[in-house]
Amino acid sequence: MGQCGITSSKTVLVFLNLIFWAAAGILCYVGAYVFITYDDYDHFFEDVYTLIPAVIIIAVGTLLFIIGLIGCCATIRESRCGLATFVIILLLVFITEVVVVVLGYIYRAKVEDEVDHSIQKVYNGYNGTNPDAASRAIDYVQRQLRCCGIHNYSDWESTVWFKQTKNNSVPLSCCKAALSNCTGSLTRPMDLYSEGCEALVVKKLQEIMMYVIWAALAFAAIQLLGMLCACIVLCRRSRDPAYELLITGGTYA
């Protein structure tokens, strides 16, 4: 029964190391996705420290690839030193992922305040005739999220751009996608998106942060299983003089 248990642990450990390689790619993808999406919404979100979880999760993804390599070599050769190193590194990465989860929740809670603080300034700086980066960001968000204004399309009436153009219309990015003849005129509000952008931007940014949190939690659970299996192999090898190596030619180092 004991030998069966140790063999199962070694088999699971080899399988987990393969998962670590896949996890490395997934975590790097999640981190890159956060960076790319943040670039689209960065004018609405001034606190660059919210990218810290994404930076950490990319670093963890890169480290997981190395961990998978160490774990595979240590498990196949059944090196006590290699397995011990594997467990220690996994523990450090696990602690790092716990930090990512905590930071993710902290910054997720701050999103609404950050957006509320900056969105009015962004809309007031809109320049539709010679659009700068902030103006392009507004048009992108309104088309992408299908919204108009901060709370609704009437918010445009208080902007500098609206007062300067004097044509009683909002940007064309407020027009519903299905309409081809929309001019943005406030005399035809049924042609415009009725929902404001602030709530949708907050929701989008919070969703992004949740991707980071769930990715970190999922792979932290896998790492716990990896540490458990490695510890079982180490303990059994230390106590059982009749312990058999997984492959011929393995080392007892």
Characterise this structure:
The chain has helices at 2-41, 52-77, 80-124, 133-145, 160-165, 197-239. The chain has 253 residues and is an all-alpha fold. α2 packs parallel to α6 and α3 packs antiparallel against α6 (197-239). The radius of gyration is 26 Å and the shape is elongated.
Overview features:
elongated, disordered N terminus, mainly alpha, 253 residues
Q: SSE order in H/E notation?
A: HHHHHH
Helix and strand content put the structural class at mainly alpha
Give the termini distance in whole angstroms.
Answer: 26 Å
Low-confidence region ranges: 1-6, 241-253
Radius of gyration: 26 Å
Helical amount: 55-70%
Q: How many separate helices? A: 6
Tell me, briefly, the overall form: elongated
Brief synopsis:
The chain has helices spanning 2-41, 52-77, 80-124, 133-145, 160-165, 197-239. With 253 residues, the chain is mainly α.
Fold blueprint:
Elements (H helix, E strand, L loop, with lengths): L1 H40 L10 H26 L2 H45 L8 H13 L14 H6 L31 H43 L14
